[in-house]
Design a protein that fits this description.
This protein is of the alpha+beta class. It contains 2 helices and 3 strands; from the N terminus they run αβββα. It folds into 2 domains: about 30 residues; about 60 residues, OB fold (Dihydrolipoamide Acetyltransferase, E2P). It is found in: Secreted.
């Protein structure tokens, strides 16, 4: 009976650990933000808070531009103003 209790307790502990660890592992493996629709206009540089590249596993290379109003906008990787904003941000930070 004691062996059965220990075995059940061990299995329960492992199951709980897996349930806690699994979402964190999946979160790290999956792309944080991929773009599927792209903004075709221009965001004024004064309104840009940050510019990030999409994850390398995303289907399309793009930038995610965050505005002063906390809006996240997808912009194609080839768009000149987005490239310049990204370079400017990385020169200041780097």
């Amino acid at each position: 009976m004691r062996t059965l209790s220990c075995t059940v307790g061990l299995l329960l502990s492992v199951s709980i650990y897996c349930c806690i660890a699994m979402p964190q592992g999946v979160k790290q493996m999956s792309p944080v933000s991929c773009c599927f629709e792209f903004f075709t206009g221009r965001v004024p540089s004064k309104q840009i808070v940050s510019v990030m590249e999409t994850h390398s596993s995303c289907g399309a290379k793009a930038f995610v531009v965050t505005t002063a109003k906390r809006r996240k906008i997808c912009v194609g990787h080839y768009v000149n103003w987005a490239q310049e904003a990204f370079k400017k941000q990385n020169v200041i930070e780097g």
